[in-house]
Design a protein that fits this description.
- InterPro entries: Cro/C1-type_HTH (IPR001387), DUF5753 (IPR043917), Lambda_DNA-bd_dom_sf (IPR010982).
- GO terms for molecular function: DNA binding.
- It comes from Streptomyces xinghaiensis.
- This is Helix-turn-helix domain-containing protein.
- A 6-stranded mixed β-sheet has the order 3-2-1-4-5-6, sandwiched between helices.
- The protein has 279 residues and is of the alpha/beta class.
- It folds into 2 domains: 73 residues, 434 Repressor (Amino-terminal Domain) (Orthogonal Bundle), CATH 1.10.260.40; 156 residues, 2-Layer Sandwich (Endonuclease, Chain A).
- Helix content is 51%, strand content 14%.
Amino acid sequence: MELNNESDQLTPRVRLGRRLRRMRERKELSLRQLSEQVGGYSHSYLGRVELGEQLPSEALVNSLDGYFDTDGVLGELLEIAHASVIADYSRTVVSKEPEAERIQVFTSSLVPGLLQTEEYAREFFRRSLPGESEENRNARVTVRLRRQRILHQGKSPYYWSIMDEAALRRPVGGQRNMSAQLRHLLHMASQPRVTVQILPFAEGAHPMLGGGLTLMTLKDGRTIALVESFDSGEAVESPRRVVDLTDRFDLARSLALTDDASIDLISDYLKEYEDDCDS
């Protein structure tokens, strides 16, 4: 079935909403009547989806596709909408995550996206994208949490994260938010296919100050890379450049604390944040 016949100028979210409204109107249903047919989702929520003000959940889209018997069309539009909120420069690399055998990540001042709590991610997008609408920020959070599923599936990729100590020191969202984030970080670090290391302040300068790097090894043996700064990035597939970036990652890893020492440092920061919350 053709996905849509809307103008290419419309955002994927608006196109999805318009398609839903047309399907509802063909059945001559009000929003309240549709709500009753698809599990009681509020009519106001359905209205926001139709107006393109909010992305629907996957559960809602599955219910709608089933009710309208649309062979997954709304689900496909939701996939397109999710992809549209990922930065252009990183979309190619992010799309390969389900094919990854290993993901290695270095971040300078933030907990990496696949290890973030919902509250941490929400505050990050609120502060880093002040001019963006709340609806767009919410969509970004939804997509980030959805991507995290790859670390919980049966055969997840091996995930190796190195963070500058600044990621622990910076209280994104305040003390309580950071307490929850660090507890989640400790939980994830205890998983058999996740390694978390901290590059401490005591090491001084290192090869990746001020930037972020993702190295993704795919099932066919290729490694691709994503280099990021605060508002830009570049996907890298050239073997020569990937080797150079891998060398940088390895140098940072050589300066990082061991797994156990990293866990101890995260735990020390967690205690500080929890003490501040109690005081």
